[in-house]
Amino acid sequence: MNSYSIQKTKEKLTFFKMIKVKPNFSQIARDHNVDRHTVSKLYKGKEVKVKRDKPSTPDYLRDEIRDLLKDPAISITAAYFYFKVEERGENAIKCTLSNFLKYVKKYNLNEKEKDYIAHVRYETDPGVQLQFDWVEDLKLKTIDGETIEFNLFSATLGYSRMHYFEFSYGKTESDAKRCLLHSFEYFGGVTQKALTDNMSAIVSVRGTEKQIHKSVIQFFKDLDCKLILCKPKTPETKGKCESSNKFAQWLYAYDGKLKDRSDLHRVIKRLNIEINKRPNETTGVPPLQLFEKEKGTLKLINKRIFEDWNQQNISTQRVPATCLIYYKKNYYSVHPKYIGKRVSVEGIEDNIYVYYNKVLIASHKRTENKLNCKDNDYYQGLASTGLSEDLVEQYSSENLKRLKK
User: Fold this and answer.
1) d(CA 263, CA 231)
2) Residues in Cβ contact with 153 at an 8 Å cutoff, skipping those fewer than 6 apart
3) Residue 155 in 3-state DSSP?
4) SS3 121
5) Whether residues 133 and 166 fall in one domain
6) How far apart are CA 59 and CA 64, in angstroms?
7) What tens-digit pLDDT sequence spans the chain (405 residues)?
8) What is the reported pTM?
9) Could you tell me if 63 and 191 lie in one domain?
10) Does residue 203 contact residue 220 with C-beta atoms inside 8 Å?
11) Are 229 and 191 in contact (CB under 8 A)?
12) What letter does residue 296 receive in the DSSP assignment?
């Protein structure tokens, strides 16, 4: 019952009084969605308390919510994850997920049909199993229209369902090893077993024969972790990881809304936090809660593996005033705002990636050039010196031509 319903009821009763006919209170109550006793009180001239109309928190976003949910890949929870982000400022929703779900249902903002496929769950004891896989060939656009093509490494602990996602351009053996090490580092220990499918990064398949790469066998031996391959065409075998991969759909809400590649890394980093706080559909409790029990059962990580990996692929250094970081005889530029910050530089095949607090801040193609400087990095570096805009344009244009000769 709101003020609008009361007003309409009063108007109807006034009409009946004018024609001197006693109205049917029950019928008027049904017509205007009010209580029959309220109609009776109004007819007798008594005052009734009116429930104050309160605008629902997401009302001003209703059209935007409906448009976002038209995408079959975006779930209601994924939309909530997108709309509540702090970076939206005043446009961030303040309601709970439960109220958001009710709001979407009330206004029929999600018209997609969903298909659910059930699989038998295989439960494991704490610290026994890690399931890992790739969410492959994802594409998201930035605000400027740049397409970011990438893969998402997904790892899930079998007991607690604690998840870990990591951005990766490639799906090579080197990529798989790197992401696995990072996942065990994230969890704070190693499981007894690791389960995955027959990904080409670690397995060669010929007909019905499967052969794990020798370097991969040694890698898991060093980790003191048994690698198990699930049978082909049986994704339910690693169902916990498959279930966690649905959270990757949350990223689609950011299609066309990302500032740059670094922004995507920040979103994935926040995704890792959010999904582990959300109750799991099977256990009914957040992964973080069960992880308190599981983390004590994980084996210590072999630090030598990390040290060997870092020596071969990663350099950690502080960004100098030149904005140029050094990697294997050559220099590569970063934005001047990272001057004085400690960054990690990683070389993977033909690419150089620079991270700050595990967020990608720069990427370069590996070249034979001594100096590799991106135009915007150089421009921003000159601008920070206080030169006029005209001089910055002139000097950056002239000097970049010299650097690229």
Assistant:
1) 37
2) 132, 134, 135, 164, 165, 166, 167, 168, 175, 176, 179, 183
3) strand
4) coil
5) yes
6) 10
7) 567 677 788 888 887 777 677 888 888 888 877 888 888 888 888 887 765 544 455 677 888 888 888 877 788 888 888 888 766 777 788 788 888 888 888 888 887 544 444 444 556 789 999 999 998 888 999 998 888 888 899 999 999 999 999 988 888 888 888 899 999 999 999 999 999 987 888 888 776 677 888 889 999 999 999 999 876 554 444 455 555 567 777 888 899 999 887 888 889 988 888 889 988 877 788 999 999 999 999 999 888 887 777 666 677 788 888 788 888 778 888 888 898 888 888 887 788 888 888 788 888 888 888 788 887 877 777 677 666 677 656 666 666 555 555
8) 0.60
9) no
10) no
11) no
12) G
CA 174 to chain centre: 23
Cross-strand bridge partners of residue 63 = none
CA distance 148 to 167: 11
Alpha helices in 53-172, H assignment, sequence order: 62-69, 76-83, 97-106
* 157 neighbors 129 (Cβ within 8 angstroms): yes
Q: Is 252 within 8 Å of 140 (Cβ atoms)?
A: yes
Q: Residues 320, 285: one domain?
A: no
CA distance 45 to 25: 14
Query: Using an 8 Å Cβ cutoff, are 168 and 261 in contact?
Result: no
Best CA proximity match to 384, nearest among 373, 374, 396: 396
> Same domain for 80 and 154?
no
Type of residue found at 155: A
Supply the DSSP symbol for 136: E
The answer on 64 and 26 residing in a single domain is no
Q: Which domain holds residue 209?
A: 129-297
**Cα 11 vs. chain centroid, distance in angstroms?**
52
Query: Which two three-digit tokens encode residue 379?
Result: 């421009």
CB 195 within 8 A of CB 130: yes
Residue 161 burial by Cβ neighbours in a 10 Å radius (0-12, 13-18, 19+): buried
